[in-house]
Design goal:
The complex is a heterodimer. Chain A is α/β, with parallel strands linked by helices. Chain A contains 14 helices and seven strands. Chain A is 46% helix and 9% strand. In chain A, 41% of the residues are buried. Classes of the chains: A alpha/beta, B mainly alpha.
C-alpha cells in the first residue's frame, strides 16, 4: 500500500471506476431480486453523492426504473434545484418536485429551531439567519463545542456558544428536514414498489454524519464504502454533470451557507479521506501527515476526533434493541 | 475543600452519565472522553454543571483536557476558580 516507490498520497485512494461500478450494480440488482422490488427512488440534492447513486441505479436498473425526487425548502440554496434537475435530465430519469416548506412549517421545524436559538439570543427573529459551526480540530486540543453563528437583518454577524438545551433543540428541529424528505421517499417507494436509497459516502457513514430515520434510513446504501474522493472518481466515470462535480460540499440545512467542515468534519474532504484511510489501514502517521500537509500532532488530533465521533454516533447505527431475541425473525435476506 | 469538590464532580458524573452505576465511577486520572463517559453533548452538560453548580464561568479557552478531561483536572480547575470558597451546593 505504501512503499518508498509509491508514497502514501491521494493516488492511494484511486479506484478502477469501471470495476467498482460493476461491483455496486451487481449488489443493487441482487438486492432488488431478493426483495422483489422493481426499481429505486433517489432523493436528488444536487450534490455529488446523490448524483452518483442515481447514476449507479440507472446503470443497474435502467432509467425507466429510477425515480428522482427534488425536495428543496425555503432555506435551501438557490442552486440546489438547478443542479438536481441537471442530474435527472442528464440520466433521463423521471422525477418530481416536492417542495417541503409547508410540511416543515406544519411540523414546527422553523419555529422550534428559532425558539431554541432564542434561548441564547433572545432578539433572534424574522430576518435573521443562522448556522451551527464547530471550531477547527487541527489547531488546538480544546474540546470542540458547537456555536451558532447568527446574521442579523443589518448584516452583522455574531457567534454564540450553545448550551445543551439550545444545541439539542436546534438539531432536533432541523432534523425534521431530513426526516420529511425520507418520509416522502418512502411514500414514492411504496407507490412504485421501489426501494429507497441512502446516499452516504464513507466519511459520512463512518462518522455518523446523518440523521437517524432521516437520511440515515434506506434500503440500500450503495456508496457507503467509498471515500469521498472515490465518489468523485465514479462521478466523472458515470458522467455526472461537471457543475455538480465542481460544486463545494454543503449541508444545505441551515439558513446561512454552511460547509460540511464548519459543521462536522475536521478537514476538507480530500485531507479527511487521507486521514481516515491512513487510520483504517495503519499507514505510518508520518506519511499521513506529509500527504495532508499537517504535523504529526495535528493528525493525532484528527484521529482522536474520528474516534470520538465514532463513539458519539454509534447509537445512530444501531438497530432497535429487543429485550428478548425473536429467533424466527432474521435480519438476513435469505 | 478539595475532597468536597471532587465528590460533587464524581456525584454529577455518576448520576448524569452513568445512571447511578458507581462501579463505573471514573478514576481520578481516567480520561472521561477516552473512557466513553463523555461525548460532545456530555461536555456541554459538564460545562453547564460547572457554571451553575460552582458559579464559575467557563470560557472557550478553558475547554481543554488539561482543565476538563479528568476528575483530577476538573477538581483542580474548579478550586483555582473558586478561590473565595465554594458556593453552597
Amino acid at each position: 500500500m505504501t512503499t518508498t516507490d509509491h508514497p502514501f498520497s491521494a493516488e492511494t485512494l484511486r479506484i478502477d471506476p469501471e470495476q467498482e461500478t460493476a461491483r455496486i450494480t451487481a449488489s443493487l440488482t441482487h438486492y432488488l431480486a431478493q426483495t422483489r422490488r422493481r426499481g429505486a427512488v433517489v432523493a436528488l440534492s444536487g450534490g455529488i453523492d446523490s448524483s452518483v447513486v442515481a447514476a449507479l441505479c440507472v446503470r443497474a436498473f435502467g432509467p425507466e426504473r429510477v425515480f428522482g425526487l427534488h425536495m428543496p425548502e425555503k432555506e435551501s440554496s438557490d442552486d440546489t434545484l438547478v443542479f438536481s434537475r441537471q442530474v435527472s435530465e442528464a440520466f433521463g430519469i423521471d422525477s418530481e418536485l416536492e417542495e417541503i416548506s409547508a410540511i416543515l412549517e406544519a411540523a414546527g421545524c422553523y419555529r422550534r429551531r428559532d425558539d431554541a436559538i432564542r434561548l441564547i439570543m433572545p432578539e433572534y427573529g424574522p430576518g435573521y439567519r443562522s448556522k451551527i459551526v464547530l471550531p477547527s480540530v487541527v489547531d488546538s486540543d480544546a474540546f470542540r463545542l458547537y456555536s451558532v453563528v447568527v446574521q442579523a437583518p443589518d448584516g452583522t454577524t455574531t457567534q454564540h456558544r450553545l448550551t445543551t438545551e439550545a444545541y439539542l433543540g436546534i438539531v432536533a428541529a432541523t432534523n425534521f428536514k431530513q426526516r420529511v424528505r425520507k418520509m416522502l421517499e418512502y411514500h414514492h417507494a411504496d407507490r412504485l414498489n421501489y426501494v429507497a436509497t441512502g446516499t452516504p459516502n464513507r466519511l459520512e457513514y463512518d462518522q455518523g454524519f446523518f440523521v437517524k430515520l432521516g437520511d440515515g434510513a434506506a434500503d440500500v446504501k450503495p456508496i457507503a464504502h467509498l471515500y469521498k474522493s472515490q465518489v468523485y472518481q465514479l462521478a466523472e466515470y458515470l458522467g455526472v454533470p461537471a457543475d455538480v462535480r465542481n460544486r463545494p460540499s454543503t449541508t444545505d440545512t441551515y439558513s446561512m451557507p454552511q460547509s460540511q467542515e464548519e459543521f462536522y468534519f475536521s478537514l476538507p474532504h480530500q485531507r479527511m479521506d487521507l486521514c481516515l484511510y491512513g487510520k483504517n489501514n495503519d499507514v505510518p502517521i508520518e506519511q499521513v501527515a506529509e500527504a495532508c500537509a499537517l504535523s504529526v500532532e495535528q493528525v493525532k488530533r484528527v484521529y482522536r476526533d474520528i474516534d470520538q465521533k465514532r463513539s458519539t454516533t454509534k447509537y445512530l447505527h444501531l438497530p432497535p434493541v429487543l429485550a428478548v431475541e425473536v429467533p424466527e425473525i432474521s435480519h438476513n435476506l435469505r | 475543600m478539595e475532597q468536597q469538590v471532587r465528590s460533587r464532580i464524581i456525584s454529577f458524573i455518576v448520576s448524569n452519565f452513568l445512571f447511578g452505576d458507581e462501579s463505573r465511577s471514573p478514576r481520578d486520572d481516567e480520561s472521561l472522553l477516552e473512557s466513553g463517559i463523555l461525548d460532545s453533548t456530555g461536555i456541554l452538560e459538564l460545562i453547564q454543571f460547572l457554571e451553575t453548580d460552582f458559579g464559575i464561568e467557563v470560557a472557550d479557552s478553558d475547554t481543554v483536557p488539561d482543565n476538563l478531561g479528568t476528575v483530577a483536572n476538573l477538581t483542580r480547575f474548579v478550586l483555582a476558580r473558586t478561590a473565595d470558597g465554594l458556593p453552597s451546593a
